[in-house]
Write a structure and sequence with these properties.
Elements (H helix, E strand, L loop, with lengths): L5 H11 L23 E5 L2 E4 L4 E4 L14 H12 L9 H13 L5 E5 L2 H16 L3 E5 L12 E2 L9 E2 L6 H4 L2 E4 L4 H10 L4 E6 L13 H14 L2 E5 L11 H6 L5 E4 L10 E5 L1 H4 L18 H16 L3 H22 L5 E5 L2 E5 L8 H5 L3 H13 L2 E2 L8 E2 L6 H17 L4
Parallel strand pairs: 3-15, 5-8, 5-9, 9-10, 10-11
Antiparallel strand pairs: 1-2, 2-3, 4-12, 6-7, 11-12, 13-14, 14-16
The structure holds pyridoxal-5'-phosphate.
The site of pyridoxal-5'-phosphate (PLP) has 15 residues, from helix 4.
Length: 433
Amino acid sequence: MTLTRSRSRDLLAQAENLMPGGVNSPVRAFRAVGGEPVVIESASGCRIKDVDGNEYIDYIGSWGPMLLGHAHEEVIQAVEKAVRAGLSFGATNPCEVELAELIIEMVPSVERVRLVNSGTEATMSAVRLARGYTGRHDIIKFEGCYHGHSDCLLAKAGSGAMTLALPDSAGVPPAVTQNTIILPYNDLAAVEKAFAEKPDQIAGIIIEPVAGNMGVIVPSTEYLQGLRDLCTKHGAVLIFDEVMTGFRVAAGGVQARVGIMPDLTCLGKIVGGGMPLACYGGKKEIMECVAPTGPVYQAGTLSGNPIATAAGRATLEIIKRTPQLYDQIEKRSEQLHLGLEKLADRHGVVACSNRMGSMMTLFFQEGPVVDYDTAKASNTDMYGEFFRGMLTEGIYLAPSQFEAAFIGSAHGEQEIEQTLAAADKAFAKLTRA
Ligand SMILES: *Cc1c(COP(=O)(O)O)cnc(C)c1O
């Protein structure tokens, strides 16, 4: 298949003179995979269309939100109706109350919730709350987990086991990351050691309970339970960042799937149904520390926006009344996961696939991939080549080895088969070292 991309090319050339890299979020520039990004004009179901009229089966789903597929009729109608009633009030509206009720009903550990506008805002606020609630400063974060781009979470490990974390971006002062402790993912002994070395100083742990931002990594249940027990023992706050996994691996997120309850949960992506909406929530006792009931300040002009909450409410209502949609998505995801592994094997391509529910990553390496160090051992050049081959065949994967592919309820058996047929061709074309 040869695709014309002239209009995408023109728009990107124009965009590069207007925005850094021509994008508003770095990964969209395709720097990790090479090739030229496409400019998207519209999307429907599991398909997206670029400005040159090329159609792709979409496995990015706006980086997670589109569990129900693009432009779902019921969600669009809810948004259209809300728009007619005004775009923003800066005061409580009925829809945000109903959305809060749905979140609390569906996510087991959440008793109180605060709506915000992005995942970054949710995690930043949850960390502040953990610190304000405990009166402690240190936060444990794990290597390879992404929690948005707030200063204290843009940190990487320094040299040596327990040295101070270092800024992971220019512009972050070292003073801001010195209370962030970076530990390897999936390694309970490292967390035990940190608590032993700093008793009464650790405010909390923030973790992606299934990692998606270094590619998909599913930690052991014992590990998550171990974190829960350590936090309980030391009076620290356990924060599950379920911005990606919430309403994705199950209606109630990872916590519902594995039965381990955090103190605070961050949600984003699906909870906004494709609109800019996220939230943090958890135990009543902790959440009551947020202003105006408590001393931890956090606010937002557009928080609980009526259009965003309308999209979120419609999305969660559909999920709630059709729980069987997860079985269908699980089946399709497994079909794709096993199909890709089998095809790679048939073509002599070294690859392994990690998956939970409808999020998965095909790592170009032998595996197993269990943490950031093992993830980094992937052949990213080969992933880039595979990615470009798939795009040529009309399959839109994440433009980085270290991201998840998402399947939604709009991906049918036929689309999975079409994707596997495309993968067959893309694998065959790979250059071998
Ligand atoms: C996407 C993501 C975020 C950041 O959310 P934004 O809305 O992009 O700010 C935080 N945590 C996790 C786990 C994510 O996947």
